[in-house]
């Protein structure tokens, strides 16, 4: 995956230098992009089924964890629907993280995250994640600066643990412009079928746009590791965002070199049993 | 839903009298059936999104619980993939029930079931369910007869509670013939990509086919209630099974009369705030 054009370069992160409306690695138009995503479906579904089969039939712990982060309206839900929706829902576990409950706050920030990890063989998706604990937590001062500092390291250790246990951690930041957010928020206000997606509190986060940008930059920089790198996905164009995440997910699955689990029973003996049983019936 | 041709009639249940290869209510062929299922997709997805929106934006507890039961190879997984796969995976929660763990056995049989119930606004799917506790439990004498007796009533009470709390409980028994099961088991043994789906223990259950049939008949009869009726879905033809469950799910959602939640904020004021903020920026 390191060759992917959306792989974040190492070093200081300057989000303003990364265009939100570009289509890196893709030269076609919207209709081509949509067709190309759709065309990924069969291979994505096949590889996901192999992963699921492996988890069921072997002792392997392998699994995929797709982490989606981004500002409100960046399209975490839409990405999920259009990319993860291409595979069998049985092998997918989606977790949406909202403001922590009182019980969750009484534990370390990773407690609720660990509870939501996908089982072996699954594609887990985090719609928001442990990164909120260094993003909103930093912007709104929900934790002391030393605690936020500690968390970057804790996240890296946690993700290293996951990777060592056989998890492919695919982290995507859906990158939109402030103008795109305004358009999308207005669209929610203009369409009664979208009112439910709007929350007045979204404007409070929007008012802190630059602070969030800064918090993201630090978070990406501190947690962009060899074992769990970040991808910044230009997301002003929904179709490109979906295609890019679909391609990243496909690359992650391809990289796992997934076969079909061999039989852990004697195939011929089972066949004979089945046929004999029916002959005697 | 009571008018649906797959709605189990009241009274004594005789599964042998219900054909496994029929296509009740449908006169087309396989290709028509597949096209018709596909055509249900947009309305299913629309209604599921309304339900999800309601769960998110209002205090409503409404949700759907689809219970899939059937012998091995009856196609619980395939049904899920082809019908539930038509809606946004974000609004779906699938729970597969295997043999209970030691911890689960230390509790009442409904303990693990309650923990897996979908949240408000979700379509929950049970791939096997609390019914195993009166099916395999009865056939293999995993519980005393009095306890099995108690469970039928406990299930009815539990499901009534769910319905009163706003859950639509849609129960489907995927009904196949013993011959179809043999063909499908052989197909798993003939194709290395399907070995993982085969377990030698499946033949032990198959050897008790008649006992399972009897256990199903009692279970269906005892738990076929006004509030949570059973549907017996002829499942020898996979395409018909998928179409039938898709239609039942659609009927269930239609019956909920789902709208879009109204705004719980002042739309014009929010629009003004958003525009003013940008004007001053």
TrEMBL record, chains A, B:
PANTHER family, alphabetized: POLYPHOSPHATE:AMP PHOSPHOTRANSFERASE, POLYPHOSPHATE:AMP PHOSPHOTRANSFERASE-RELATED
Keyword Ribosomal protein attributed: no
Entry keywords, A to Z: Kinase, Transferase
Stated name of the protein: Polyphosphate kinase 2 family protein
Source organism superkingdom: Bacteria
Keyword RNA-binding listed: no
InterPro entries referenced in this protein's UniProt entry, alphabetically: P-loop_NTPase, Polyphosphate_phosphotransfera, PPK2-rel_1, PPK2-related
SUPFAM superfamilies the record matches: P-loop containing nucleoside triphosphate hydrolases
GO molecular function: kinase activity
Record-linked Gene3D superfamilies: P-loop containing nucleotide triphosphate hydrolases
Domain Polyphosphate kinase-2-related: 29-256
């Amino acid at each position: 995956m390191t060759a992917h054009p959306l792989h974040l370069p190492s070093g200081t992160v300057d989000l303003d230098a990364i265009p939100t409306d570009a289509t890196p690695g893709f030269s076609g138009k919207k209709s081509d992009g949509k067709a190309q995503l759709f065309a990924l479906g069969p291979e994505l579904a096949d590889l996901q089924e192999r992963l699921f089969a492996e988890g069921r039939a072997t002792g392997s712990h392998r699994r995929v964890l797709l982490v989606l982060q981004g500002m409100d309206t960046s399209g975490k839900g839409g990405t999920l629907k259009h990319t993860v929706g291409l595979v069998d829902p049985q092998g997918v576990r989606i977790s949406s993280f909202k403001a922590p409950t009182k019980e969750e706050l009484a534990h370390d920030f990773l407690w609720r995250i660990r509870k939501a990890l996908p089982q072996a063989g699954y594609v887990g998706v985090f719609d928001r994640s442990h990164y909120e604990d260094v993003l909103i937590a930093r912007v709104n001062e929900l934790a002391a600066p030393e605690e936020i500092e500690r968390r970057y390291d804790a996240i890296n250790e946690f993700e290293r643990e996951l990777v060592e246990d056989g998890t492919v951690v695919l982290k995507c930041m859906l990158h939109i412009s402030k103008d795109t957010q305004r358009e999308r928020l207005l669209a929610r206000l203009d369409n009664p079928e979208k009112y439910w997606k709007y929350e007045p509190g979204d404007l409070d986060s929007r008012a802190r746009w630059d602070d969030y940008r800064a918090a993201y930059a630090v978070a990406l920089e501190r947690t962009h590791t060899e074992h769990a790198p970040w991808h910044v996905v230009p997301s002003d164009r929904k179709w490109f965002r979906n295609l890019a995440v679909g391609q990243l997910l496909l690359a992650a699955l391809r990289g796992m070199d997934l076969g079909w689990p061999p039989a852990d029973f004697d195939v011929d003996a089972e066949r004979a049993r089945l046929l004999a049983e029916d002959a005697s019936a």
